[in-house]
Design brief:
PEBP; 7 helices; about 240 residues; binds 2-acetamido-2-deoxy-beta-D-glucopyranose; PEBP-like_sf; alpha+beta; Phosphatidylethanolamine-binding protein; signal
Length: about 240
């Protein structure tokens, strides 16, 4: 077994022994795991929830938001001087920083959370502009079959194992626009949720238009429910085109 795997199984054993105890909390004898809680020290489920309400992600994207996990999002573009950046709610990122699909991980989790399958969605409620969201929401990603796969610096890494329902589209707000909110949400994937099962219910697939998407309606129609975690960032047009 790799060291990370051993460490993880120790954590799971400790968590199981302690019932509902959260895996990566630092308390007394668990100082060992400091590296795993770096991110959780900054954001909490409560602070992310408050950020969503303050930025009107509720109600613009979600009817309500009560996260139980932390979703960590890490963008990497090896062409940049600072190749990776972690998303803190509301952070302003450049188009270059958000060029490629990010990596996801979860923290503040129970053993059960580590065994679930997840759907990741990213939407832009501010297209073409925050003042005139005439084509909103724009669907930038809808991918299922994400499962936990080993440890990351920020918790348990999430990896997908099938083709996205709707592929990643990089943020590209039009010249002159204020920065848009890009909202990334994590849902527990229901057993009956698949690319084939949603097709008769919603006009959402790899080739359907990403414009005029309505995540609340989509979640309602497909039984996806409410997200268990999320975050958001801001991206504006490149300075040269503004
Ligand atoms: C972890 O989740 C619990 C239960 O949802 C919550 O009370 C706690 O504040 C969370 N901790 C962090 C660091 O977000
Ligand atoms: C984006 O990054 C590339 C290098 O990968 C650089 O040439 C380009 O100027 C950057 N664009 C902006 C708007 O900073
Ligand atoms: C983001 O992911 C990259 C690639 O896995 C990793 O090298 C980097 O340390 C991570 N950065 C942060 C800030 O988590
Ligand atoms: C997951 O990985 C596959 C390649 O194995 C890729 O084609 C697919 O689009 C990815 N899905 C997501 C949501 O990124
Ligand atoms: C999960 O993978 C299965 C098998 O490849 C596929 O049929 C299904 O559509 C995928 N689910 C989602 C939500 O992408
Ligand atoms: C995608 O969805 C659209 C709208 O519902 C439908 O017309 C089209 O046939 C679907 N395409 C595929 C490849 O399933
Ligand atoms: C999405 O649908 C809900 C429920 O029908 C509606 O209240 C909301 O205004 C719609 N949002 C957008 C952006 O169209
Ligand atoms: C899954 O089952 C629930 C409950 O029966 C139903 O409301 C939902 O529409 C189903 N979802 C799909 C994608 O079939």
């Amino acid at each position: 077994m790799r060291l990370a795997t051993i460490l993880l199984s120790c954590l799971l054993t400790i968590a199981a022994a302690r019932g509902t105890h959260r895996l990566f909390d630092v308390d007394g004898d668990h100082k060992l795991h400091t590296a795993l809680v770096t991110r959780a020290d900054k954001a909490t489920t409560n602070s992310v929830r408050e950020a969503f309400y303050a930025a009107k992600v509720v109600p613009d994207v979600l009817p309500s938001f009560d996260p139980t996990l932390l979703l960590n999002v890490n963008f990497t573009n090896s062409g940049l001087e600072d190749p990776s950046v972690t998303v803190e709610p509301g952070v302003l990122l450049t188009r270059n920083q958000t060029k490629f699909i990010p990596e996801f991980s979860i923290s503040n989790i129970t053993e059960d959370d580590g065994e679930k399958t997840y759907v990741v969605v990213q939407v832009d409620p501010d297209a073409h502009t925050p003042q005139n969201p005439d084509v909103a929401q724009v669907r930038h990603l809808l991918g299922g079959n994400y499962t936990t796969d080993g440890t990351a610096a920020t918790g348990l890494a999430l990896r997908n194992s099938s083709v996205a329902v709707s592929e990643w589209m990089r943020p590209s707000p039009p010249a002159g626009s204020d920065p848009h909110r890009y909202v990334i949400l994590l849902y527990a994937q229901p057993d009956n949720f698949s690319a084939a099962s949603i097709a008769p219910l919603v006009p959402v697939n790899a080739s359907s238009s990403p414009l005029h998407f309505n995540l609340s309606e989509f979640a309602q129609a497909t039984g996806l429910g409410l997200p268990v975690a999320g975050t958001y960032f801001l991206t504006g047009p490149d300075a040269a085109s503004a």
